[in-house]
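To fix ideas, we quote verbatim one protein's residues and fold tokens.
>
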Amino acid sequence: MSELGPEVDRVATATDFSGVVRLDEAGATVFERAYGMAHRGLRVPNTVDTRFAIASGTKSLTALVVMSLIEDGTLDLSTTARSALGADLPLIDDAVTVEQLLSHRSGIGDYYSEDGDKDPVLSVPAQNLVTTEDYVPVLDGYPMKFPPGTDFVYNNGAFVVLAVIAERASGVPFHELVARRVCAPAGMTDTAFLRSDEPDARMALGYLETEGLRTNVFDLPVRGNGDGGIYTTLSDVHALWRAFFAGRIVASKWVDEMLRPRSAQPDSPHRRYGLGFWLHPTSDVVIMSGGDPGVSFWSECEPSGAFTRTVIANITVGRRPIIRLFG
């Protein structure tokens, strides 16, 4: 893998990539590089320690929170959404379970659907979505798409529903659950649900075009939740993989349960899905990925530690030319 470094450098330069790349081999970092600007207006460059949003990469952390609540008996894979929702979100079928939400097999309608030709848009102003409970009215009004457990359709709303369930069942705010149950045991000291309208000195702004100053501040919730929006660093992503496979977040039997394939992606033969993680079609490689306006993320890990590869970009399109090098 070490020979990938020069190729990554070449492709990143040729495509005006803005973001960071890290390649680990047998537990050692063999390539780590930053490109482009974290803040174009102030000419602040990206560094390997810059904090980037990772879009739907957040779903893996949400799944780990839920699995940790299952491990301690607060929830079960068979727990119904209705048991936590009560009268809220009445269009969600009473039979929908936590396992179905985690595996994109719930059939619920999606408040931020990617099933179409146009990019999804928020139905409320971005600044209205701060807490988990702020999302509940936004999740309402979407009919079931298919009976629970009968199909696979990628669903952002399902992971916000999971955040609602986790928060109500535990009595702890969802953002705090992620910090306590995932970030702390993994040693992810730079990972948090930052507000996009309060950028700090190490936070990359998300840009909608390869050039220009227009950011994604109006396109995504001002503070992310169960389906996306957490900020992290290269180092923290790799720490997450190590902690996950070492059983430091949830025990190994629950890791195995999360990585048991539940579905193949219907419109692609290349990936399978477990609970919160994508799975390589023919190997043991596990994948986290995400894409939003101004955000592009990919990280893959071979469970034995043979390699870990991560690409994070603060532009809408950025990861794919580099990912193609991975084979």
Remarks:
- The first strand starts at residue 19 and ends at 25.
- The radius of gyration is 19 Å.
- Residues 156-170 form the longest helix (15 residues).
- Residues 107 and 146 are 5 Å apart (CA to CA).
